[in-house]
Automatic annotation (TrEMBL):
Chain ranges of the Aldehyde oxidase/xanthine dehydrogenase a/b hammerhead domain: 23-137
InterPro entries, sorted: Ald_Oxase/Xan_DH_a/b (IPR000674), Ald_Oxase/Xan_DH_a/b_sf (IPR036856), Ald_Oxase/xanthine_DH-like (IPR016208), AldOxase/xan_DH_MoCoBD1 (IPR008274), AldOxase/xan_DH_MoCoBD2 (IPR046867), AldOxase/xan_DH_Mopterin-bd_sf (IPR037165)
Pfam families, sorted: Ald_Xan_dh_C (PF01315), MoCoBD_1 (PF02738), MoCoBD_2 (PF20256)
Protein name as annotated: Xanthine dehydrogenase family protein molybdopterin-binding subunit
Species classification: Bacteria, Pseudomonadati, Pseudomonadota, Alphaproteobacteria, Acetobacterales
């Protein structure tokens, strides 16, 4: 019996690459086998700032099996230094150039690459490279860096400052109820399981195949072409599987640059993998200071918002985030002023990390809103509903959709919020203080121009392809479902190709735009195949579909049939046979189009969420357990409830991590992140994670993107840390305004 299972958009199928992943058949950047491979090991510098005086590599070179030691002394010429680089994700400034000269810009900077016939030999020889330095004064203390705080330039840095309204200063001064608080977020480092790695295959004719850990293979290809003065057509970058990234793989990292440099110089295939420790020597979520001042009437009506923030960047690039806009957009309040600046420290440039800007800014704003609700003596959920806005308050535009009210309601119901008592420390159970907190999350619902191809074979097998990436988010599955939805084919007959720069053009996977964008591109390509099939079917002898329009037919179970009379139809394979077609191949591009661009100017596009958290705090020991989380997301149409839920779960875990665990600690004497390993840089383990319930509220939105999809990769983290912090206040009566909330801050 042929059971037809719905696998299209909206169905909770298992991720199609799941079996490959759990059986080890999915290969990551450092796992692709290449004959005659050389191994490069990076030598990291010891000082935070200054210059290399001597670099002694003769001992390393003397080790049998060592092929070359690359450093600023002998590096080959690269084109980068002649013209601008092409990394589309780079912030304004002058990007770090590994092995360029003797200058040291940050601790752990790569100073040499030892290349050998085996990894073990390279690693041993790397330990023999000696450098001496001239040390210059440095500063890695972000609090001290406030003295060098500056406003990014609107023109040069393409910075979009917040739009102020009303008179926030006067309103704040006059407010009968007010809070004023300073918040701090520690530096956090991305710690995906897969470390940055590149396997560069020297193809003999000078062209390269590069297996790279990246969120955008075409961006890496264009970057490498620019840096090494190569034609983009001679470089193919592959990232069929990515072991997590969270933003760390948006920019090409220095190991790909070093591996390609070595491969070209030696005309051999080369692999370079960063160590876990070296993962702490590139981008990180910027350290942040944020000051929030809020005013309200005695009845809880918000009257004033003043929101100011500083985030860290390096001395050589101006990395910026949208930190202060979120609360200004979200709440009905007539007077609001925001201000944002950056301050340089002597580290590598900070970079995007899951929901950059919002994860920091909305979290602190939502912690301040909780403080204001308490100052006004109002339940924090009721307070948010009282100041609810249907429109984007900062830009004065309507949203394409905003089902945040429903998220609050469904989340509160599932959590049991009505059973909460308002007073801090009022819900003690045994030796545990119980606290319940709520917060709001907000992120952009973006769409990015994307192309996809579709290729239908005579046997009914379909291949869809795009240079998109799947960083664990489910892109393979999204593309499969968009295709299945349009052409009515079973999953087994659909193959997806992605993670290859030679495929149709796609953006980097970031900003939560990939599902909406590549989903639309695949749908367009498959619709174009469907049209060709229908026109061939209509021409068949005695065709039941003669004269039928696309609207009158349905593609389902491998057949094309009349919607009104499903018995009248033909199998797709029959159409292919009758028309003598071996293959139907198309490529289509999904873009916002004119109407989309007009809509983008006139309407705001955002995802929203309501997060409810229960914590239990051991009063004597200060140990916090997050025992329950309900995250209710309003994110438009859900392509796959199962993979979508996984995205929110991951975001919530990362939010709990931000609230309680993650902190890159610097020894300012050496300007170095000290806890650069999984033992000392804390991320949650299974024992830290308890019950998490994910709710998707109904939010039909045909306008936001072609499929009505808003994206889910980032919204799960936004506001979660605030809900945890607010719950900790409710449990303990202590306001901790510096994240992470470690035990020492509670006892
Ligand atoms: Mo995400 S920080 O856009 O990879």
């Amino acid at each position: 019996m042929n059971v037809l299972q719905n696998v299209g958009i909206g169905s909770a199928i298992n991720r199609v690459d799941g079996l490959q992943k759990v059986t080890g058949r999915a290969r990551y950047a450092a796992e692709h086998p290449v004959p005659g491979l050389l191994h490069g090991v990076i030598v990291s510098g010891a000082i935070p700032k200054g210059r290399i005086v001597t670099l002694e590599d003769s001992e390393a070179r003397a080790v049998p099996g060592v092929v070359e030691v690359l450093s600023h002394k002998n590096r080959p010429h690269v084109a980068w230094f002649d013209r601008s680089h092409k990394d589309m994700v780079a912030p304004p400034g002058s990007p770090f150039k590994a092995l360029y000269d003797d200058k040291i810009l940050f601790s752990g900077q790569p100073i040499a690459l030892v290349i050998a016939e085996s990894f073990e030999v390279a690693r041993y020889a790397a330990s023999l490279v000696r450098a001496s330095y001239e040390v210059e004064p440095h500063n890695t203390d972000f609090h001290k860096a406030q003295a060098e705080r500056f406003m990014p330039s609107k023109k040069r840095d393409t910075y979009h400052p917040p739009k102020n309204r009303g008179d926030a200063d006067a309103a704040f001064a006059a407010a009968p109820v007010k809070v004023s608080a300073e918040y701090h977020l520690a530096t956090e480092h991305h710690n995906p399981m897969e470390m940055h790695a590149s396997t560069v295959v020297w193809e003999g004719d000078g062209s390269l195949t590069v297996f790279d850990k990246t969120q955008g293979p075409q961006n890496v290809r264009d970057y490498l072409a620019g840096v090494f003065g190569m034609s983009a057509s001679t470089i193919r970058v592959m990232n069929p599987f990515v072991g997590g990234a969270f933003g760390s793989g948006l920019r090409p990292q220095y190991q790909v640059y070093l591996a390609v440099m070595a491969a070209r110089m030696l005309q051999r295939s080369v692999r370079v993998v960063m160590t876990r420790q070296q993962m702490f020597t590139h981008g990180h979520r910027p350290e942040a200071l944020q000051s929030v001042q809020l005013g309200a009437e005695r009845d809880g009506t918000m009257t004033a918002i003043r929101n100011s923030a500083t985030t860290s960047t390096s001395r050589y690039e101006n990395n910026m985030e949208d930190v202060v806009i979120w609360g200004m957009m979200n709440y009905a309040c007539e007077n609001a002023a925001g201000e944002y600046a950056i301050a340089p420290v002597d580290t590598a440039t900070s970079t995007d990390m899951r929901a950059p800007g919002a994860a920091t800014g909305m979290t602190f704003f939502e912690m301040a809103v909780d403080e204001l609700a308490y100052a006004a003596g109002i339940d924090p959920l009721e307070f948010r509903l009282k100041n609810y806005s249907e429109t984007d308050q900062m830009n004065g535009t309507p949203f394409t959709s905003k089902a945040l009210r429903e998220a609050y309601a469904e989340g509160a119901e599932a959590f049991g919020w009505s059973r909460r008592s308002q007073a801090p420390r009022s819900m003690k159970e045994g030796r545990e203080l119980v606290g319940w907190g709520v917060a709001t999350g907000m992120w952009d619902a973006m769409f990015s121009k994307t192309s996809a191809s579709a290729r239908l074979s005579a046997n009914g097998h379909l291949e869809v392809a795009s240079a998109a990436s799947d960083i664990g988010t489910g892109t393979y599955t999204v593309m499969t479902q968009a295709a299945a939805d349009t052409l009515g084919l079973p999953v087994e007959q659909i193959a997806v190709r992605l993670g290859d720069s030679s495929l149709p053009k796609a953006p980097v996977e970031g900003g939560s735009w990939m599902a909406a964008s590549v989903g639309a591109a695949v749908q367009l390509a498959c619709r174009s195949v469907a049209e060709k099939l229908l026109s061939a079917a209509a021409k068949m002898q005695n065709s039941p579909l003669a004269g039928a329009s696309m609207e009158a037919v349905r593609f389902s179970g491998g057949r094309i049939a009349l919607r009104d009379d499903p018995a009248r139809g033909v199998a797709i394979t029959e159409v292919m046979r009758a028309s003598g077609t071996d293959v139907i191949a198309v490529e289509e591009t999904a873009s916002a189009g004119i109407s989309g661009m007009i809509s983008q100017m006139r309407k705001s596009r955002n995802t929203h969420s309501a997060i409810f958290v229960e914590v239990r705090v051991d009063e004597e020991l200060g140990v916090v357990r997050v025992t329950r989380v309900v995250n209710a997301a309003a994110a438009g149409r859900i392509i796959n409830p199962k993979t979508a839920r996984s995205q929110i779960l991951g975001g919530v875990v990362m939010g709990i991590s931000m609230a309680l665990h993650e902190e890159s600690m610097t020894d300012h004497r050496y300007g170095r992140f000290m806890n650069h390993n999984y033992a000392e840089y804390h991320v949650p383990v299974n024992a830290d994670i308890h019950d998490i319930q994910v709710i998707f509220v109904d939010e039909p939105d045909p306008e936001v993107t072609p499929l009505g999809v808003k994206g889910l990769g980032e919204i799960g983290i936004v506001g979660t840390a605030a809900a945890v912090a607010n719950a900790i206040f409710h449990a303990t009566g202590k306001r901790v305004r510096a994240l992470p909330i470690t035990i020492d801050k509670l006892v």
